[in-house]
């Protein structure tokens, strides 16, 4: 089955580590908060400096762009960012941060929670959040898409490719994605 | 040199065809009877007269038809040509390199007249005669990279060099072997090569990157790569896979010689002086197996290469399902005789 | 390598002199990108030197190449040669422009910090930044006013013996997200700036530096070249690369300053201590590789794969 760590474009997640910084921004969902807590446990000073954006029931993922705009409006170089949670949250936050000009080297991420992925359909370009099976059905064009390990940091998504292009209708049974 | 341009298509009725001359000059990529992924780089400084290596940007009988096919693909999907905002200067580098090279290498087809930054470009085969201001985008109908690559055969990746890596930050990609510029744009060298099997473990990309980072203005390099395509189709992109995927299953022993094509990429690498970027043209040549086997050496060798290719490479190159049929077809042209070294016909 | 005529030699400060080269026939030279350097070949007695100098003229101007050379009396002699023996009218050989210190054009802003003669690569970058309309901040740090080689209206000048030293933390702390930092100057200055930036949370991918790593002199030593079956003595004022070239042994190179990786050479045997002076090899490679353009050796025997 597919696993997220097999090829060079796949995102690499490492346990979050404290790093010297002038300002700290942490973004996590419910599952990711444990990683943030562990990070702050290692370095309580960091916790006192940090702005924490928690994505969850009260602040759904769609609030992320506006929240990040706010957090970055006064930011200066020296800001370090820690991301923790689902692959989709990490990818979205990272894509927004990169688009704002933050170098990748200032961003760390740790995957927590489910194996769900954020996918882009290569045919109709629709983004699908929280995809849990391979193949999955594209919410845009309805095609059955194979979950490819190829990942674009700019889009914050893995690539979905039509699984039955050569043999239309021949679609294998969807399998749960695993970590 | 006069070239008669073919009237032909790369889709629909697939009327693409190679003349006898085009067959003889086809860049057959195997210099021995087996294939292993390697970087096999050599200086791109001319080559045998008449060969595809002779000019810096080869123009052949398919030129006009290929440019028409590119225009169709772009009108359906404009995202096949993209340039991230910091790549405009590199785009001018590309335009300058191609215009000066073509005007020198094909004076009967192209002319470039420069008066300071006032440039006049004449492209006879496509009927273009434009005057514009170099480094001023508003004086061209497209961005500089798009403008010139709408007039140049092959795909183009324009790479930015920074952090000791190369970043695919601009490109014109309408005749690709199943990769998506729209998805890969912004990736570094290792990321966009991630789907290639084996090579990563072998450390090939580390060495290749080091080589490419050190390419200088006066030392362009080239290599050949290859894959297989059913029908002479340029646009085998992942975007349009549902259109061409079914064609891969349309091979029969009877139509194989005519429908199965060897697709060879002449890749070259150029340092761009103003931007310090790197231009990576990927020029595609297509030949049907029935034309290929008219050169006996190529028929023998290609049979041996395809028969012995490791499974994962055949899968990556997209012809694993058709391999038995292809081997069967090619075996008819392999009498077991030894082949001479090198790529050229005997 | 192309042969060019030295057409002009102008002192810019007591120690720094500008040299202009043009094609002998007046033909245009290849344009380049800001931050590029050229290799200048000097026949200094019986030693053939090749030293790298940043191009300081406008990169888009192919009418000539200009470099600025600071006289280093403690150096191996290249700068002395340029100051004393190079004279207008002379023909000299120069390499193609090579850029190992290019601007990162994805940056939102460029912070350029120059120490002394480290201003030179930025002189090629400023016209480029101006043309692009890019946001930049140039800090030019010198010890005393007579070190100033160029008058730069856009720069903030810091003269330490006049008490106007740069407030490094203040400068680093005031940069918007997406700023890239470039520093060029002495090894000590570069290390100080990069250390502070890192301590303040700047990521490595936003930090760029170029050190003028002229191969420093050292004790003479012997090296055995296994492939060519030759044993050479590297003189005190010679680099191992120069010794290889003098012996007719082919060795690749690009920067001759320990930065590009091109001259990387396998060490086959080593009984002694390699004095690694490059910025290229990783720590785990240092026991089996050497960069002959800058590094030296002390000990009994060094065998390399050349
Ligand atoms: S020549 Fe560049 S590291 Fe030695």
TrEMBL record, chain A:
By its UniProt entry, which InterPro entries does this protein fall under? DmmA-like_C
Q: Which domain of life is it from?
A: Bacteria
Q: Report the residue ranges that make up the Dimethylamine monooxygenase subunit DmmA-like C-terminal domain in this protein.
A: 118-161
Which Pfam family, just one, is annotated for this protein? Answer: DmmA-like_C
**NCBIfam families membership:** mono_DmmA_fam
Specify the protein name.
Answer: Dimethylamine monooxygenase subunit DmmA-like C-terminal domain-containing protein
UniProtKB/TrEMBL annotation, chain B:
Q: Which domain of life is it from?
A: Bacteria
> Could you tell me which Pfam families the record lists for this protein?
HODM_asu-like
Q: Provide the protein name.
A: DUF3445 domain-containing protein
What is the species listed in this Swiss-Prot or TrEMBL entry? Paracoccus laeviglucosivorans
From TrEMBL, chain C:
Any idea where the FAD-binding FR-type domain is? 1-104
Q: Which SUPFAM superfamilies match?
A: 2Fe-2S ferredoxin-like, Ferredoxin reductase-like, C-terminal NADP-linked domain, Riboflavin synthase domain-like
**Keywords in UniProt for this one?**
2Fe-2S, Flavoprotein, Iron, Iron-sulfur, Metal-binding, Oxidoreductase
Is Iron set as a keyword in this record?
A: yes
- Per UniProt, residues of the 2Fe-2S ferredoxin-type domain are 221-306
What InterPro entries has UniProt attached to this entry?
2Fe-2S_ferredoxin-like_sf, 2Fe-2S_ferredoxin-type, 2Fe2S_fd_BS, Beta-grasp_dom_sf, Cbr1-like_FAD-bd_dom, FAD-bd_FR_type, FNR_nucleotide-bd, MRET
Question: Which GO terms fall under molecular function for this chain's record?
Answer: 2 iron, 2 sulfur cluster binding; metal ion binding; oxidoreductase activity
Cited Pfam families: FAD_binding_6 (PF00970), Fer2 (PF00111)
Q: What PANTHER family does the record point to?
A: CARNITINE MONOOXYGENASE REDUCTASE SUBUNIT (PTHR47354:SF1), NADH OXIDOREDUCTASE HCR (PTHR47354)
Q: What is this protein called?
A: Ferredoxin-NADP reductase
Taxon lineage = Bacteria, Pseudomonadati, Pseudomonadota, Alphaproteobacteria, Rhodobacterales
């Amino acid at each position: 089955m597919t696993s997220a760590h097999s090829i060079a474009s796949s995102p690499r997640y490492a346990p979050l580590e404290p790093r010297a910084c002038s300002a700290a921004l942490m973004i996590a969902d419910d599952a990711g908060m444990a990683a943030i807590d562990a990070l702050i446990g290692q370095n309580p000073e960091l916790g006192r400096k940090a702005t924490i954006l928690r994505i969850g029931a009260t602040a759904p993922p769609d609030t992320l762009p506006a929240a990040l705009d706010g957090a970055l409006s006064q930011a200066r170089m020296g800001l370090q960012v820690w991301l923790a949670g689902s692959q989709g949250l990490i990818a979205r936050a990272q894509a927004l941060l990169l688009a704002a000009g933050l170098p990748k080297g200032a961003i760390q991420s740790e995957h927590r929670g489910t194996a769900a992925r954020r996918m882009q359909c290569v045919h109709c370009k629709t983004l699908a959040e929280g995809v849990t099976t391979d193949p999955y059905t594209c919410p845009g064009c309805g095609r059955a898409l194979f979950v490819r390990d190829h990942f674009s940091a700019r889009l914050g998504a893995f690539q979905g490719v039509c699984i039955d292009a050569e043999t239309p209708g021949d679609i294998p049974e969807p399998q749960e994605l695993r970590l | 040199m006069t070239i008669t341009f073919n009237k032909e298509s790369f889709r629909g009725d697939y009327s693409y065809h190679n003349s006898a001359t085009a067959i003889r000059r086809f860049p057959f990529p195997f210099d021995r009877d087996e294939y292993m992924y390697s970087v096999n780089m050599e200086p791109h400084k001319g080559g045998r007269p008449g060969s595809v290596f002779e000019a810096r940007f080869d123009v052949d009988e398919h030129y006009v038809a290929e440019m028409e096919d590119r225009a169709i693909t772009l009108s359906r999907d404009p995202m096949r040509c993209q340039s991230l905002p910091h790549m405009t200067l590199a785009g001018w580098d590309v335009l300058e390199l191609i215009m000066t090279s073509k005007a020198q290498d094909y004076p009967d087809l192209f002319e470039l007249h420069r008066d300071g930054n006032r440039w006049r470009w004449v492209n006879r085969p496509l009927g273009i005669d434009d005057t514009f201001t170099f480094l001023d985008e508003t004086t061209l109908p497209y961005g500089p990279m798009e403008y010139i690559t709408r007039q140049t055969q092959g795909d183009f990746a324009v790479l930015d060099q920074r952090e000791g890596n190369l970043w695919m930050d601009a490109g014109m990609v309408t005749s690709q072997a199943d990769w998506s510029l729209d998805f890969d744009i912004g990736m570094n060298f290792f990321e966009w090569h991630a789907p290639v099997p084996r090579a990563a473990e072998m450390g090939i990309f580390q060495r290749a990157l080091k080589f490419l980072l050190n390419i200088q203005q006066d030392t362009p390099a080239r290599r050949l790569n290859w894959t297989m395509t059913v029908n002479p189709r340029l646009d085998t992109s992942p975007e349009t896979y549902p259109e061409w995927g079914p064609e891969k299953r349309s091979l029969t022993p009877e139509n194989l010689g005519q429908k199965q094509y060897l697709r060879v990429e002449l890749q070259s690498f150029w340092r761009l002086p103003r931007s310090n970027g790197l231009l990576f043209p990927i020029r595609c040549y297509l030949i049907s197996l029935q034309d290929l086997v008219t050169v006996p050496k190529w028929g023998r060798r290609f049979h041996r290469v395809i028969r012995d290719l490791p499974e994962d490479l055949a899968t990556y190159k997209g012809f694993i399902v058709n391999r038995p049929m292809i081997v069967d077809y090619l075996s008819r042209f392999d009498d077991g005789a030894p082949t001479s070294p090198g790529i050229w016909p005997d | 390598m192309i042969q060019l005529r030295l057409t002009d030699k102008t002192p810019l400060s007591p120690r720094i002199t500008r040299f202009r080269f043009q094609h002998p026939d007046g033909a245009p030279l290849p344009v380049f990108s800001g931050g590029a350097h050229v290799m200048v070949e000097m026949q200094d007695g019986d030693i053939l030197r090749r030293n790298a100098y940043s191009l300081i003229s406008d990169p888009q101007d192919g009418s000539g190449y200009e470099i600025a050379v600071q006289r280093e009396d403690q150096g191996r002699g290249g700068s002395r040669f340029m100051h004393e023996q190079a004279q207008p009218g002379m023909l000299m050989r120069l390499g193609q422009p090579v850029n190992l210190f290019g601007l990162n054009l994805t940056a939102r802003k460029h912070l350029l910090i120059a120490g002394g003669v480290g201003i030179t690569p930025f002189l090629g970058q400023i016209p480029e930044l101006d043309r692009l309309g890019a946001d930049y901040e140039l800090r030019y740090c010198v010890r005393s006013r007579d070190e100033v080689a160029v008058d730069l209206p856009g720069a903030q000048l810091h003269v330490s013996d006049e008490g106007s030293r740069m407030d490094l933390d203040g400068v680093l702390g005031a940069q918007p997200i997406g700023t890239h930092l470039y520093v060029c100057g002495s090894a000590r200055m570069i290390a100080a700036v990069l250390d502070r930036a890192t301590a303040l949370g700047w990521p490595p991918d936003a930090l760029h530096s170029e050190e003028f790593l002229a191969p420093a002199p050292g004790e003479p030593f012997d090296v055995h070249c296994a492939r060519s079956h030759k044993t050479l003595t590297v003189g005190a004022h010679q680099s191992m690369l120069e010794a290889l070239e003098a012996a007719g042994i082919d060795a690749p190179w690009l920067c001759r300053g320990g930065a590009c990786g091109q001259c990387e050479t396998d060490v086959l045997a080593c009984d002694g201590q390699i004095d690694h002076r490059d910025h290229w090899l990783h720590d785990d490679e240092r026991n089996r590789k050497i960069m002959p353009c800058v590094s030296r050796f002390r000990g009994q025997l060094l065998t390399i794969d050349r």
